[in-house]
Amino acid sequence: AGIHVQRDTVYSHEKIEEYIIRYRNIDGWEKTADLICGYEKQNQDQLFSDDGRTLLAGSFIIEEGISAHGNYSALLEGELQRSPYYTLKGIKTGDVISSSIKSNISSEDKIDNVIIKCEFTDINGDVIELISEPSPGRIDEDWYMSDLFAKIESQPMDGSIRCYVEYTGNNSVSLDDFTIRVYSQN
Fold first, then answer.
1. Among 66, 99, 107, 111, which is 20 to 30 Å from 172 by CA?
2. Sheet holding 114-121: strands in order across?
């Protein structure tokens, strides 16, 4: 099991023990989506990924001055419990979804209340939810990172998946750098 890689020494200077090693995936996996939303690209009531090519849907509150990276973050509080979402298209059985979010929560709250979710209806009509594990890592004294890594086990009905961040706490959370990557095997 695992991914097979090819290892090459690209450069070596043995006298000072300096090397550059390159690893190549030889299993045929390729990254088919690589999206990051740092909540920096806005145009009126629209929010885009950092490259400006992918529109995120849903309601949002942007706050300035609180961020892990850049100038802005998204705020979830009160009635607004879900982040804007990505809709990923062309997803098939066997694809792998990798997602992460940076979050800044109040000291009275638990980081387990920040959950990454990807959901879809499969070809049998069942609603499938992929949910991040409650094991975030601390980035610095203010920010945590939560991750989701999941393999698509059943075919999405229309080949699309919706991914977002949900906050289940009672206070508020600031979100930054919502990242989604999709890997497909040829």
1. 99
2. 86-88, 161-167, 114-121, 127-131
